[in-house]
Amino acid sequence: MDDPLNLEQPMKFSGFGLIQKREANVYSRLVTNEDDLFKVWHLGIPNIDGGEWKLHINGLVENATQLNLTELRELPQTSVMAFHECAGNPLNPKVPQRRVGNVEWTGVRLADLLRLVNVKDEARFVISKGIDQGVYNNVYYSGYEKDIPLEKALDPNVLIALAINNEPITVERDGPVRLVVPGYYGTNSTKWLTQLVVSDVRSTSDFTTKYYMDRERVDGQIKESPVWDVSPNSLIVHPQNGQSIKPEEIEIWGWAWAESPISLVEVSVDGGETWKEASVEARSNMEWQRFSFRWCPKSVGEYLVMVRAIDVKGNCQPLLQRRNQVSRVLIFVQQRTEFYNES
Ligand SMILES: Nc1nc2c(c(=O)[nH]1)N[C@H]1C(S)=C(S)[C@@H](COP(=O)(O)O)O[C@H]1N2
Ligand SMILES: [Mo]
């Protein structure tokens, strides 16, 4: 259906070409249930036997190595709670989807593994490879491949994860092992992980060069930037798009997040004419942050409620045409919110 205002609401399940459900109540908790967290895959779900699974670490390292599941489980385990956001459809990267959740991952720090193999001086990137294979956008791929800068790979929040919300990750989602890169878009968190390659250059895979590469025209030139850091974004949990409310005080609330902490959230109840400051909780590690704003509608009618989050670096959600464009819901204020009750 044509949606000129782009009044998108969060989706529970997604995938490219899969079912998209619109349900906001799954977002009412700080920690998203694994069942409620979106799943995205490009190539299909591989057949992995945990007993056979190995993680190979090689490239620009002194001691290339491989670890099996038992060896990985014996290394020190860390937990990180973090927002997890999909950058959207790579064929349509400016269309907002707000496939997002906030979950706790547990596993081995990538930094610990990199210390184990002793990274060479020339190293600049860590390339991660997933074992899934299949066809995406009419091209066959024998694996999924991403890269992150070495500096990010050494961030203590970056994990080789074995569990989500204290449960072992399932092969259906991403198991037995996946990379998790908190603060970066979901695309960088390679699932069904089998190989890490330390490199002095970026990966040449289509998933890093063709897809998930933002392109913008600056002074007549095309400027490319990898889809890494998550830009400020927000999700209105209450009220929901299309909801009818009574002319009484309500709490407009939701979540805001970015690679850097969010320091300010602003709300507009007049379609962006005027903005007021909401209260926003301080960031705890890499979690999303709750914002809230108390508002009493002055009269019955239709209201376009908008929210924009601003991070500590001053980056703000743009109004339109970006994956993180200003969040909005259209709501109705009326004396009675229930009608035609025929029983
Ligand atoms: N191996 C592999 N890893 C992958 C993908 C994939 O298709 N294959 N999709 C990526 C994308 S685009 C996203 S948003 C996240 C989704 O992770 P989730 O399904 O656990 O939510 O996984 C990323 N990692
Ligand atoms: Mo994604």
Keywords:
343 residues, disordered N terminus, binds molybdenum atom, single chain, five-stranded mixed β-sheet, mainly beta, binds the ligand Nc1nc2c(c(=O)[nH]1)N[C@H]1C(S)=C(S)[C@@H](COP(=O)(O)O)O[C@H]1N2, 2 domains, five-stranded antiparallel β-sheet, elongated, Sulfite Oxidase, Chain A, domain 2, Immunoglobulin-like, 37% strand
Report what the structure shows.
This protein has 343 residues and is mainly β. It has two domains: 17-226, Oxidoreductase, molybdopterin-binding domain (Sulfite Oxidase, Chain A, domain 2, Alpha-Beta Complex), CATH 3.90.420.10; 233-342, Sandwich (Immunoglobulin-like), CATH 2.60.40. It has helices at residues 69-74, 110-117, 150-153, 206-209, and strands at residues 54-59, 65-68, 78-85, 100-109, 125-130, 134-136, 139-141, 144-149, 159-164, 167-168, 178-180, 193-199, 213-218, 221-226, 233-238, 244-245, 250-257, 262-268, 276-277, 279-280, 289-295, 301-311, 327-333. The protein has a five-stranded mixed sheet with strand order 2-1-12-5-8. A hairpin with a 2-residue loop joins strand 6 (134-136) and strand 7 (139-141). The chain starts with 53 loop residues before the first strand and ends in a 10-residue tail after the last strand. It binds ligand MTE and molybdenum atom. Molybdenum atom is lined by residues 40, 86-87, 186-187.
